[in-house]
Design a protein that fits this description.
Length: about 220
C-alpha cells in the first residue's frame, strides 16, 4: 500500500491526540457525587470513554440510578466545561507531528466528544489552527462508529476516502473508517489496551504519534525532530 498517497489525515481526540483521562474521570465523579454515588477509579472511567458523553454517563450510573441520568449529565457537562484543561495534555510528539503533517496534508479531528467542549481544548493546547475541520458528536451527523462524520470531512475537503487515513485508539475508530472506505492506523498508547487495538485489525499500528510521519510522509520531506 502506498501510504504516501494519504492527503487527508483524520484524528480521533481522546486517547489519540490528548490524554484527558484525569479531567474526564473527575467530571464523571462529579456527576456521580451529584446523585449521591461514590467515586470510581480512573481506570474504570477510562474504559467507558469513546462513545460520547451520553454513553459515558449511562455507564457510570448503576441500574437503580438511571432515573437520575439528566441530573448526572448536567453535572458532568458543567464540571467538565470548567475543568477540561486542569490536567489534560498532548501526548508526546503530537504538536511537532501535526505541525509537520499540516505542511503537506489536510488535517481534521473527528471525535464523539461534543464540539463545544472540544474546541477550547484544542485552542488551549495550541493546536486548533492545524485542523481544517473539527467534527464533534453534538452535530447533525451520527457519531462514530458511523462513517458519516468521516465522509463529511472527505467531502468538505474534496479528498476521496481512498486518499484519507483515520488515526485512533479504539475499535470504534477502526469500525468507522472501515465503513467509510478509509484506511485506518491504530495507536497503542491510548485508552484501549494494545491487544484490543490490534484485535480490531487496523491497516497500520504505531506506538507513538511521531511514527505517523514515517508512515505517510516521504523520507526526503521529513525534518529533523
Amino acid at each position: 500500500m502506498d501510504t504516501h498517497r494519504f492527503r487527508l489525515i483524520i484524528f480521533d481526540l481522546d486517547g489519540t491526540l490528548i490524554d484527558s483521562r484525569v479531567d474526564v474521570a473527575n467530571a464523571a465523579n462529579a456527576a456521580r457525587a451529584s446523585v449521591d454515588l461514590a467515586s470510581l477509579p480512573l481506570e474504570t472511567v477510562q474504559g467507558y470513554v469513546g462513545d460520547g458523553v451520553t454513553k459515558l454517563v449511562e455507564r457510570i450510573l448503576p441500574e437503580n440510578k438511571r432515573d437520575a441520568f439528566d441530573a448526572a449529565l448536567a453535572a458532568f457537562l458543567e464540571f467538565y466545561a470548567a475543568h477540561s484543561l486542569d490536567h489534560t495534555t498532548l501526548y508526546p510528539g503530537v504538536r511537532e507531528t501535526v505541525e509537520t503533517l499540516a505542511q503537506s496534508r489536510k488535517l481534521a479531528v473527528v471525535t464523539n466528544k461534543r464540539r463545544y467542549l472540544t474546541m477550547p481544548i484544542l485552542e488551549g493546547l495550541g493546536i486548533a489552527g492545524f485542523f481544517a475541520q473539527v467534527v464533534g458528536g453534538d452535530g447533525p451527523l451520527a457519531r462514530k462508529p458511523s462513517p458519516e462524520p468521516l465522509l463529511s470531512v472527505c467531502e468538505a475537503e474534496g479528498i476521496p476516502p481512498n486518499e484519507s487515513l483515520m488515526v485512533g485508539d479504539s475499535p470504534t475508530d477502526v469500525s468507522a473508517a472501515r465503513a467509510a472506505g478509509i484506511s485506518v492506523c491504530g495507536v497503542t498508547y491510548g485508552y484501549k489496551p494494545p491487544e484490543v487495538v490490534r484485535a480490531a485489525n487496523p491497516d497500520f499500528i504505531i506506538n507513538s504519534i511521531p511514527g505517523l510521519l514515517e508512515l505517510v510522509v516521504p523520507m526526503e520531506r521529513l525534518p529533523e525532530l
